[in-house]
Design goal:
- 2 copies of one chain form a homodimer.
- The first copy, chain A, folds into 3 domains: 49 residues, 434 Repressor (Amino-terminal Domain) (Orthogonal Bundle); 130 residues, Response regulator (Rossmann fold); 131 residues, Rossmann fold (3-Layer(aba) Sandwich), CATH 3.40.50.
- The first copy, chain A, contains 12 helices and 12 strands.
- In chain A, strands 2-1-3-4-5-11 form a 6-stranded parallel β-sheet, sandwiched between helices. In chain A, strands 7-6-8-9 form a 4-stranded parallel β-sheet, sandwiched between helices. The first copy, chain A, has a two-stranded antiparallel ribbon with strand order 10-12.
- In chain A, α1 packs across α3 and α8 runs parallel beside α9.
- The longest helix of chain A is centred in the N-terminal third of the chain and has 17 residues.
- At the A-B interface, α4, α5, β2 and α6 of A face α4, α5, β2 and α6 of B.
- The first copy, chain A, binds a DNA duplex through α2 and α4.
Chain lengths: 348, 348
DNA sequence: GTATTTTGTGCAAACGTTTGTATTTTTGTA
DNA sequence: TACAAAAATACAAACGTTTGCACAAAATAC
């Protein structure tokens, strides 16, 4: 086992300081100590000060497990995101932490990896850990919702964000995908493109559905017709974007611009265009969605729609706390989005 | 509170199924159920099957809190990283999850935000939650280590990774920063640059110290002298990289290449060079460290050192499990790094 | 047939809190 | 001084498990 003897150390079971130790030490009972630590005014100021001093002296640290067990609620909130390393999600997480940390709630973060089975497991794990609530953004795969319902049936507050299912009864926070997509498409139109395509994800996911609607609205409003052969679904990765644009430009009727429902797909599109020697934005316009960090670093810089991820996290956490306090409400909150115009689309 | 009355639902305290419910239902005691669920052969096969069936029927889910309280160990592992949205760290996390998930351990992820106070708080939070172990990568700010020692003193297994303090007695997993930096610098030398600078972080952090050593070794080995005025510390952000290069090129003696201890700084350097109209790689060579996703997307593409983050996560988790099983050992594991040559440095 | 082992189960305490109720102490009032 | 009210503290049960020990029944050995 151990490479050398002197590397091995006997880890003795550390005796933790409990409220009983403090109680014995001060000649009071555990209940008094408990109340004193909670700041309960039913114990005299003198005793409270004594307890606080002694607990500091002994290095007392509350056993959250015991506390949660007794109180029946764990002060832990579970969060399930598709991928932790997506700019958008990690910023939502930061927003959630911003609100949760000061309140003493602990955040348990897990990734579904865009995989339904892992998402289901994650929910069960969180339930087993008796989390006080669950925050979730659905994986692209997720088409069955028993696991979500299971959580709700247990009475665990649920907040959905970004990738939501509108039919599930829970608080929801979403981006204004519709307006973002609408503005993006309008911008392409104003920039003089006529044959505007749309590369998107699974339309059954609310976020992508709304983006499609925004795109469609802008088109019809400007009297442009959507050519359905310019609309590619399940096209959200770099590779898929590349394949789609290569494919689209082989056809008789070619688009002269494309609004992608994600920056990665837009990146793939730019790859393809560069390879084919097509000039951006002169000959072809590209707009993405999400404002991934790379979007302003690539050449040409990518016009995209910014989602206010941090703000969304803040709202999500706030909604969760409200829910946990029993003020359950099903309202959908919408976070505004913003078009960021860069080089890939503007030929004003 | 609630906007409309029909949105408000009375969340009744859901009565969870406990082992007692199963016990009563089957006419046995809770202890038998507990043992049966644990697969203890001291209870008859028949009873075990009965219990399993009934628990499935009633939808029993273990109360992890009660179990942890009784057993004195929580099956939860805490992980503290500086920033969750750094490519490197989120990949380490994925690696850790890869190992931990199948074992049933739960991972509690927190960010220190490169901030000592938050890091200390995070440690205390994890201790209060009675985690079975702590995985940590230190923040750049961290110069005092009482909080780390506190955890060790409690007998909580600790694994440090990447940003470690070698003096703390714990398992450690690090990148081969030395070799990575050595190869990067050698490469610049081979590419014909002579006045090679180095932009780095806090040298007291092991990772940066080692990179400096690798840089120095390559230089001296090739008979080149390090010009200390070309070495900039605390230069790991884009902005700092920009400022440093602008500053460095104002001086009489100018570097003609720079090895940055991070890709973000290298990005800032490229910004500065572009602004000053200096051609890369013809007039100036740049190498980064970390292989951030953007490094292959920018123009010119950035030569950098790849760290095997996922592999590191796997090793970290493995070390942690070993530790938790009492096989404590202090060995330092090293994960290999690899130079990726791109356009920013090669004028072979 | 009795003595011993094996096997399966029950009992009860423990983990460290919290909290409703009971009890003691203090304070105020007549 | 006596008595009620208020304040401070103690008591004990509970949260849902796990686990050492006790015990009964069945199986085996002599």
């Amino acid at each position: 086992m151990c490479k050398r003897l002197y590397f091995c150390i006997q880890i003795e079971k550390m005796k933790r300081i409990t409220i009983n130790d403090i109680a014995k030490n001060l000649g009071v009972t555990a209940s008094t100590v408990s109340r004193a630590l909670a700041g309960n005014t039913r114990v005299s100021l003198r005793t409270r000060e004594l307890v606080l001093a002694k607990s500091k002296e002994l290095g007392y640290q509350q056993n959250v497990l015991a506390s949660s067990l007794r109180k029946g609620t764990s002060g832990t909130i579970g969060m399930i995101v598709p991928r932790i390393n997506r700019h958008f999600f990690s910023n939502v997480i930061s927003g959630v932490e911003e609100i949760l940390n000061p309140t003493g709630y602990t955040l348990l973060i897990t990734q579904s990896g865009e995989n339904l089975a892992k998402e289901q497991k994650a929910v069960d794990m969180l339930l087993a850990n008796h989390v006080g609530g669950i925050i979730i953004s659905l994986s692209v795969q997720t088409q069955s919702y028993e696991h979500i319902q299971r959580a709700i049936d247990r009475g665990v507050p649920l907040v959905q964000f970004d990738r939501i299912n509108p039919d599930i009864k829970s608080s929801k926070v979403i981006n204004d995908n519709f307006t973002g997509a609408y503005l993006a498409t309008k911008h392409l139109i104003k920039s003089g493109y006529k044959e505007i395509g749309h590369f998107t994800g699974t339309l059954s996911l609310n976020a992508y559905g709304e983006r499609y609607r925004g795109y469609a609205k802008a088109m019809s409003e400007s009297g442009l017709k959507i050519n359905e052969s310019f609309v590619y679904k399940d096209t959200i990765t770099r590779e898929a974007g590349y394949n789609a644009i290569v494919n689209a430009l082989k056809e008789e009727n070619k688009p002269d611009a494309v609004f992608c429902a994600g920056d990665y797909a837009a990146l793939g599109v730019l790859d393809g265009l560069k390879e084919m020697g097509i000039k951006v934005p002169d000959e072809f316009g590209v707009v993405g969605f999400a404002n991934e960090p790379f979007s302003e670093l690539i050449h040409p810089t990518l016009t995209t729609v910014e989602q206010n991820a941090f703000e969304m996290g803040v709202r999500v956490a706030t909604a969760m706390i409200k829910n946990m306090e029993g003020k359950y409400d099903q309202e959908i909150e919408t976070i505004s989005t913003r078009l960021i115009v860069r080089d890939s689309s503007w030929r004003g």
